[in-house]
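USER:
Class, as today's exercise, take the chain set out below, and explain how the chain folds.
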Amino acid sequence: MSSDSSGSGNSIGRRDFLKSMFGLGGLLEASEAQAKSGTGRTIFFWSDLKTGQVGFPTGFMVEAGLPGSVMKIVAAAALLEESLISPNETIDCKGHVTIKGARINCLVAHGKVDAVHAIAHSCSVYFATASKTMSQSLFFDYAQKFGLNSAVGSVKCGLFPKPEKSTAWPYVLGLSPHLHPNALQLLRMSAIVANRGDVPYLHSAEESAEGKARFNLEFSDMTWGRLQQGMQLAVREGTAHKLDPGNKLHVAAKTGTAPLGKKFQSWLTGYFPYDAPRYAFCLGALNGTSSEVAVPRAKEFLFATEWP
């Protein structure tokens, strides 16, 4: 069952779940200023994975903000590459877990999940539990590997944290106010997974890519495989299952929802077709959760275009 569905039995209402999750550590208050300056609009970017050219049908204003569960891609890569958890090891999600005094909730009790299913269903219990032995500096190292501290073309990077003596899980779940990647950085993250670490220089049509270095990241085939499988499964049966229900575009994606003042903002980033990646994309919605806004709006954009 998708963690974006309301469910029954062990499930709780989505908005009650989000309030319980995002109320931790005063995150709602920390994002209040951002909410006051937000426009409430939807942004959508895509990139050609062969040429690196970026398209932006809704304008070139690049928003940044709390990424939410999109950061679980970074965490999964760190967990697998550093052998902090084995690829097929499962963690039993009963719907909540307490880490150093903080209660972390999932929308539903996912049961026993491995890395692939944890990505697909965005299981916070899995990632918080598996990341207990992950240092904050290790997570930052992998965030840097994914380019979250570097510009995309001529667009500067979003807010990237300085080391502090604190637990890693708020960063793993994308809930730290000190980490605000922008939409193009999240797009590039999906491009990196799609192309297994080899991505052309991303740029707008007005910017020359001549002589610009490609983005390169080396992981094991196992790690790339699990990341790709998790994002594919997210669209087939997970948190993005309403994005491409007929599997027409063969989309792989990851959702993320985060607080924006007293409301929510959401992201959806991914690539397609997953069997021969040609495009990466990112949608940011400043006025709702991923299931309410990001997924349906991304579906509209993706199916409104005749992709070559």
Q: What stands out?
A: The two ends are 33 Å apart (CA to CA). The longest strand covers residues 263-272. The domain at 14-303 is CATH 3.40.710.10 (Beta-lactamase).
